[in-house]
Amino acid sequence: MATPKKIGILTAGGDCPGLNAAIRGVGKTAILKYGMEVIGISSGYLGLLEKDYIPLDEASLSGILTLGGTILGTSREKPFKKNHDLANTKPEKIKRNYLEEGFDAIVCIGGNGTMKTAALLAEQGLNVIGIPKTIDNDVYGTEQSFGFDSSLCIATDAIDRLHSTANSHKRIMVIEVMGHHAGWLALYAGIAGGGDVILIPELGYDMKSVNRYLKKRVKSGKPYSIVVVAEGIKKPAKLSAASYIAAKIEDGVGVETRNTILGYIQRGGSPSPMDRILASRYGARAVDLIASEDYGKMVMKSGDNISVIPLSEVGGKLNLVPADHPLIERARGFGVCFGEPGLE
Ligand code: F6P
């Protein structure tokens, strides 16, 4: 009878709804299906550096499926980041602590930065499995990271609410959603929330086109307009995307314009049912990989299948909205403006 494996779980990077569902999916599968020992690692990779562990058992995993945030805490610690003293010993310290603790494997739950670190730890000989998490949905190699669906629900609900106040005051409302590099949240929430203008980093935009489009709406008697922008669009460093675009619109269109930045509300609260299911499926598949000693992989979604991709193929890349994404064409067909230059 082989000795039951001992696995660690860490959550790193920006938090999001679904992290605890993923921890629970890993933990319950490991304990109930394989009799493994499960150790929570606090605050992402920092916990590995500081040996900050929390043993997890069925009791500690009970009641966390619906909880926002992460019971393990998180950080943006990047152990491989070059620092001023070139003799960066963090990776060696992590490997030493990993071996001293007797981990057979660790599950790293996080975004593209977390996957990049996981891939580098795998190259150092650690047994690592990655689970893609982020509200931005910009982790390369998977159709969907958990966290995205929950933040999409939050952002869409917020946009729905802004229609009524925009209509009451006959205003133009600019809403900024998160999405540092990728415009997935702005694209999906913009369409789901009935946005008239959607600006995403991948497409670029021309303010003249945006204002010409909005003026046409005013002239045709539309009482208000909704403009959805991703935080990562091109804009002056000192201004938020929402305040910059709102000022440009108010000057250019001559209609009272207000802006709202949804910010961290998009990362809080209980996960959506779909994220609870996706995070749980990712967790279970990650443990199956450990049981079969198939390391150095990230679990991913392809269609309705949960499959795997080598971590070495994920690190350092982003999942960005392609310019020819069918949803963009469809939205244009609904009359949505993406700020394309030269718009009539
Ligand atoms: O990566 C997710 C994300 O929420 C981005 O959309 C956002 O720009 C960033 O994290 C904010 O980072 P922090 O939580 O460190 O302020």
Mind explaining what this structure looks like?
The chain is of the alpha/beta class and 344 residues long. The chain is 39% helix and 17% strand. It has eleven helices and eleven strands. A seven-stranded mixed sheet has the order 3-2-1-4-5-10-11, sandwiched between helices. Strand 1 (6-11), helix 1 and strand 2 (37-41) form a beta-alpha-beta unit. Helix 1 packs across helix 10 (273-291). The longest helix is centred in the middle third of the chain and has 22 residues, at 148-169. 6-O-phosphono-beta-D-fructofuranose binds at residues 14, 76, 111, 134-136, 178-180, 231, 267.
Number of helices: 11
- In angstroms, what separates the terminal alpha carbons? 72 Å
**Given the helix and strand composition, which structural class is it?**
alpha/beta
Return the string of H and E elements: EHEHEHHEHEHEHEHEHEHEEH
The appropriate CATH architecture of the largest domain is 3-Layer(aba) Sandwich
Index terms:
single chain; 344 residues; alpha/beta; Rossmann fold; 2 domains; seven-stranded mixed beta sheet; 11 helices; elongated; binds 6-O-phosphono-beta-D-fructofuranose
How would you concisely characterize the structure shown here?
The protein has 344 residues and is an alpha/beta fold. Helices cover 39% and strands 17% of the residues.
